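Justification of computing resources. Each target in the renewal requires a structure prediction run like the one illustrated here; the chain below, 477 residues long, is used simply to show the kind of job we budget for.
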Amino acid sequence: MNEAAARRTVLVRAFDQEPASDVWSDEDRAWATQAAAKVEGEGATDDAFIARRASLALERLAAREKRVPRLLASVSWPAWIGWLIPLLAFAAGAAADSIGAGQRVNLLAPPLLALMVWNVFIYLAILVRGTWGLVDARARGLGPIARLLARLAHVTGAAPRRGGKAAAEFFREWMQVSAGLTAARIGRVLHASAAAFALGALAALYVRGIAFEYRAGWESTFLEAPAVHALLDTVLGPASALTGIALPDLDGYARLRFSAGGGVIAAPWLHLYAVTVGLVVVLPRLLLALGDRWLEKRRTARFPLPLEAPYYRALIRVLREEPVIARVVPYSVQLSPQATLNLSSLFTQALGARTTISVAAATAFGAEDDIDLQPIVGDATLLAGLFALTATPEADNHGAFVDRLRAATQAHQLVVLVDESAFRRQFGATPRLDERRALWRDFAAERGAAVVFIDLEQPDLPAARRSLQAALASPAA
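Resulting structure tokens:
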């Protein structure tokens, strides 16, 4: 899947997460999935099927919602960034004084030397950041300059204010999944700009050298000729070997001191510094830019969209007709026959007709440490703990039960279901309902679990289905 297809896919996912509406209904979602499966066929790869579904869905969405093309364009990388920033960097380098004040060049302190030191520092920072990023994911993020450039690149893609929840979710998700590609693009621009700045400085140096006579020498309060000899031979030695321009001996350095004379014509020294800048700044930066360009092209052509996420796996199951085995484990809840039927309908609608669901015997309050979950879990691919909203969640009981479920799921998915039927019969849809829901949301969030609320006696199955699908698509599941 390429970048454009991934961008369409993430946008369709954002609309899929919204409640059904005239713009994008449950029937539209089902149509897009079935149409993509029919067009691509059973032998289609996962990413081809997902990309086809997004393409078909956006054709229908764009006809109803004018913001769709604008949303896609808002996160597209502007090509002008790649040439404008380096061009400005070249101009800045040309405008900078790369020789020094007046027409005397102090060989110990030309601005070009500071430029090289800065770039060496940047190389070390890149090395340290890359090494640390192998053990700490936080070190893989963009630095402050890169973040500024990222905001500039997506100046039209600032978090939408009037685009609705789908637009905000699309922007958030795309910024997350495209972070690697964005980092490669920004790295390419920054490295190319650094090389352009150095080339601009060198170009200005030679242009000024045509019109003015510069004389080279050195002066220092603390250094004497031997130290200057060792320092400049180290810095300029590689350039001397490449160009054949000889460096002076110890006596020659002593004569170069401005206090001992007026210095010498600076041309050979400027050539040596120019070659050294090329070796230390221009060449490494261009190689780094080429590396980021290769990475950019690779990620653009094969975008790393996480198709293992529950949202995509649920779609792929339709294509593959993969069965889902769900186990519901009630905690201090007794289900009526009608509630059990509604629970089965919920899972079938949310996960497909081939879903197999079974309900385990209820675990009594306080008996969470006595049950053996392994026979219950078995070959289940989805485990759901069922609670009653009438209960107040307690860490020592309800929390311990969820922890046991989490330990038993291993690689499976886990969701917390909260039945509202008894609470609604007793209190109705009062503010107390929202307060109790908030308690259970906080309880589930503390344990990293996704939560779904449903009245199992009189359910709103479409709303519950969307809630269950969204819960399974969340990282907590």
